[in-house]
Amino acid sequence: NMATAFQTITSSPTQLTYNYNGWDSMILTNLHATSAVVVGFYIILKNSSGGPVGNPLSYFLKNVKIPAGVSLKLEEDEFSYDNSKYLAYITFSGHSEGINITTRRK
Fold first, then answer.
1. pLDDT (tens digit, 9 = 90+) per residue, 64-95?
2. Which of 11, 74, 84, 95 qualifies as a cystine partner to 32, CB 3.0-4.6 A?
3. Interatomic CA distance for residues 92 and 40, integer angstroms
4. What's this model's pTM, rounded to 2 decimal places?
5. Which DSSP helix (H) or strand (E) runs through 31?
6. Are 23 and 105 within 8 A, CB to CB?
7. CA angle 45-48-50, nearest 5°?
8. Would you say 17 and 61 are in contact if contact means Cβ atoms under 8 Å apart?
9. What is the pLDDT confidence band of residue 1, given thresholds at 50, 70 and 90?
10. Interior/surface letters 9-47, b for 16+ CB within 10 angstroms, e for the rest
11. One-character DSSP codes across 7-29
12. Dist. CA 21–CA 52, nearest whole Å
């Protein structure tokens, strides 16, 4: 059976809310019917309390334009990170409807 997790991002930046270790793919979908969205996806160091420390450490996506109604699929090797050390955030701009994230594990 395939495990699936969903999160809708409607404000920027937004911390991803579930554990990404071991996921096989991530699909980012622009929810707007007519406007493109510009997406960022980055990690930041996690402090001992679980909060963010400093500025983005590394970007998986930066200023990537996703056209209206289009999805972008990332494979595991394109977004894998150690969530015991890092927090992940999504940013977007271009409209207020947000993006949908679907993550799957086989």
1. 999 999 999 999 888 888 888 999 999 999 88
2. 95
3. 6
4. 0.89
5. none
6. yes
7. 65
8. no
9. low
10. beebebebeeebeebeebebbbbbeeebbbbbbbbbebe
11. EEE-SSSEE--S--TT--EEEEE
12. 18
Report d(CA 62, CA 40) in Å as an integer.
4
CA 46 from chain centre, in angstroms, equals: 17
Cα 58 from Cα 49, distance rounded (Å):
21
Chain segment 8-58, per-residue pLDDT in tens: 999 999 998 876 677 899 999 999 999 999 999 999 999 999 999 999 999
